[in-house]
Design a protein that fits this description.
373 residues, alpha+beta, Transferase Creatine Kinase, Chain A, domain 1, Creatine Kinase, Chain A, domain 2, 2 domains, two-stranded antiparallel ribbon, 12 helices, 16% strand, globular, binds adenosine-5'-diphosphate, binds arginine
């Protein structure tokens, strides 16, 4: 099935570029008022002013996406931190009046900025952050990729999922050496196996309400799955939030080893798959928080002293451009005193600069932990 831009996968008709329907505008109006009077602290609420809303509410991309498709998640989940997704790649430009300030607030990336060319840099720059294994439980680095020729989740038909999965898996199956592995489709995966993979931090969770509201979970579990090597140190998520989430992870704090493995993996995959990259935003992703390098480099770390005052830990993390998440990932709480600390910015910096930001930040946090009373 080839991707036809003129055929909308929502209504299966040739809606093409044009205006949002009266029904969509009516839904938007009602939801806008609710959001405006809510106590949401999302970037959506902050930047969707009445003027911008009125400007954007009638627009529609050539994929058939409207403002409603981009902001539905934030409208239904007032506890969103961001609240928007690009329903298709055109949304970043057609709804730029909303996306640009949100992107700047999240990444510090201005309207006039451009993502630098891909630069992994020397992979041997980073050492083990915790050689005595006292604080860091594990290290994980992931990046996201969108395959050329396919839209983002909300515009994907069941056949798109089947076709893209076939294409990605045939490439993954050719990998060798430390990247050799097996693909495990979600379709037909026993529930206990799935849960075990989720609980061990390898597999994406199911039923993310932010993604569901964004229409990103349609046709689930068709086309979704996970590929991993024997040691589960190289893994690829297929068609969760993005077409690919490529990740390397291992116990301990050896950032250098994990980074080297990830760079090798992405380099291999790029030989066989074509990924969408824009001059302005670098690698294009469904969520604006992942644009650019798309790298989230994290450690699962125990910081008993700093974590006794969470406001202090969060302020310190912010100082080093780090984000604090719970143990099971985004929107979760810490379990057993383990926190997920990762780089917050991914756009406007090279891959190597992003890694350096994370590496320096975690080193500094560790110094604070060691010297805290
Ligand atoms: P993403 O990292 O892809 O944005 P999440 O924040 O939901 O998504 O995390 C996905 C999974 O990766 C979760 O199970 C989380 O616990 C796990 N994870 C993240 N960082 C680490 C790490 N450093 N060590 C082990 N597991 C990790
Ligand atoms: N939409 C969610 C929110 O605003 C998640 C944003 C970032 N995370 C992501 N997985 N894209 O809180």
């Amino acid at each position: 099935m080839s991707l036809s831009k003129s055929k909308c996968t929502r209504c299966e008709e040739s809606c093409g570029k044009g205006k949002a329907s009266v029904d969509v505008i009516r839904k938007l109006e009602a939801a806008f008022d609710k959001l405006a009077s809510s106590n949401s602290t999302s970037l959506l609420k902050r930047y969707l002013t009445r003027t911008i809303f009125d400007d954007l509410k009638t627009r529609k991309t050539s994929f058939g996406s409207t403002l409603l498709d981009c902001i539905q998640s934030g409208l239904e989940n007032f506890d969103s931190s961001i609240g928007v997704y690009a329903a298709d790649p055109e949304c970043y430009s057609l709804f730029a009046e909303l996306f640009d300030p949100i992107i700047e607030a999240y990444h510090g990336f201005k309207k006039s900025d451009r993502q630098p060319p891909t630069a992994w840099g020397p992979v041997d720059t980073f050492a083990n952050l915790d050689p005595k294994d006292e604080y860091i439980v594990s290290t994980r680095i992931r990046c996201c990729r969108t395959v050329k020729g396919y839209p983002f989740n909300p515009c994907m038909a069941a056949d798109h999922y089947r076709e893209i999965e076939r294409q990605i898996v045939s490439v993954l199956n050719e990998l060798s050496g430390e990247y050799r592995g097996i693909y495990h489709p979600l379709t037909g995966m026993p529930k206990d196996v799935q849960q075990n993979l989720i609980d061990s931090h390898y597999l994406f969770k199911e039923g993310d309400r932010f993604l569901q509201s964004a229409n990103a979970c349609r046709h689930w579990p068709t086309g979704r799955g996970i590929f991993f090597n024997d040691k589960k140190t190289f893994l690829v998520w297929v068609c969760e939030e993005d077409h690919l989430r490529i990740m390397c992870m291992q116990p301990g704090g050896n950032v250098g080893e994990v980074y080297r493995r990830l760079v090798g993996a992405v380099t291999e995959l790029e030989k066989k798959l074509t990924f969408i990259r824009s001059d302005r935003f670098g690698y294009v992703t469904f969520c604006p928080t992942n644009l650019g390098t798309t790298i989230r480099a994290s450690v699962h770390i125990k910081l008993p002293k700093l974590a006794s005052n969470m406001d202090k830990l969060k302020n310190l993390a912010e100082k080093y451009h780090l984000q604090v998440r719970g143990t099971a990932g985004e929107h979760t709480e810490s379990e057993g005193g383990v926190y997920d600390l990762s780089n917050k910015r991914r756009l406007g910096l090279t891959e190597h600069e992003v890694m350096k930001e994370m590496y320096t930040g975690i080193s500094e946090i560790l110094k604070h932990e060691k010297s805290a009373k």
